[in-house]
Design goal:
alpha+beta; Muramoyl-pentapeptide Carboxypeptidase, domain 2; 2 domains; two-stranded antiparallel sheet; 9 strands
Length: 227
Amino acid sequence: MHKGARRLAASAARAAAILALLPLSAGLAGEAPRTFGPEKLPEVTDADDPLVDAQPLVPGLVVRLTYATASNLARRALYPPDMKCLLRRSVAERLAQAQRALARSQRTLVAWDCFRPKEAQEALWKALPVPGAVADPQKGSLHERGVAIDVGLLALDGSPVPLPTHHDEFNARTHADAPLPDGPAKQNRDLLIRALHDAGFRVNPKEWWHFSRLWGYRWPVGRLPRP
């Protein structure tokens, strides 16, 4: 091969090698760690904040999971009867803080839903495919991530107290700021929201019972722990 041709071939080979690296570099740049919120909070891993049984960490917590019965949107039990209230450890710790505050007002928390397996989320979406009422399972809900909980209140002896609505009842009274008449139902709702807000939760504006960690999509979709 002529010397000039060899130099041209070598230059072409170097250019090809550089071009071959460009997609990889672009991919690496696109995979920079995601951050959340103005404080640029990092993603959280399962190892950093595992799913745990919340009941031992929240003394006095009553667990009555709606989806372990047929009285729900899907009209069939979606959880086994012995399903635990699983939450991220950090969520359970904050729930314990709220529980201590509520005890001073002679109230205790009752958990209606905690971690929700993917299959249950899909069943609920099939029963009510309405964004805002049920999260699209393609994205993964906050319940699936173990950072959301549906809760109500009971008296310390476990007896019912007045509340605005039943769990998963959808009407104007279910909104967190619904203009309820003055009385025990409004007082208990506002007490619940205040206690959980002070513990680091945010209420769903459309569901007075639904609370979650701020920037909850930092956490991955969870999986049921192996027995």
